[in-house]
User: Fold these one by one.
Assistant:
Number 1:
Amino acid sequence: QVQLVESGGGLVQAGGSLRLSCAASGRTFSNYVMGWFRQAPGKEREFVASITWSGGHTYYADSVKGRFTCSTDNAVNTVYLQMNSLKPEDTGIYYCAVRTKATPQYDYWGQGTQVTVSS
């Protein structure tokens, strides 16, 4: 059974940084893509970033490009989202999710971690 556990959220002032972690277990993820999503209060969940477990190919939403960076540590099956120059509009619950490279749908989701950016 695939399990994803996020950590690292918290309260930070605008301009600050946070690093989110997503520990994955339950299978070998070499052919998978890890995604980060977020949901702000009253808004729909939106894509933030993704990275392939093998190759480390990344893709970012325009709103975070240049500020957020995805990386993996395959030795411990953990994906990171380094978030710099945070803005109040980055506030929300951040989720990690995983899908195979062959499908666009993310099949497994973590429980989420709260990020709050104060102005």
Number 2:
Amino acid sequence: QVELVESGGGLVRPGGSLRLSCAASRNILRINNVGWYRQAPGKERELVAGIFLGGRTQFADSVKGRSTIFRDNAENTVDLQIYLLKPEDTAVYYCNTLVPYGSEYRPSRPWGQGTQVTVSS
């Protein structure tokens, strides 16, 4: 079974940046659409960024304009970089492969452990 492994989280001051990395076995990330999700305490998990086969990217309004998502083919990962971090970005961040679901996408594999991002002064 493919295991998703997230890394790169940590404690960051407001205005800082982080690069999160998603790794998986068997080149799964190279041949699938991939999304980054986050779940803040007391809130539902939400999709914040996606990268699709063909290169198209998509961002939630909450991170649009201050995030990039890209495939690092050398490391076989899908990375999410968030700039100008805000306290409301505090959450556990997860990655997953995405499959179409109507007009949207849904995650298709068991969740990994996630990586905690805390934005605080």
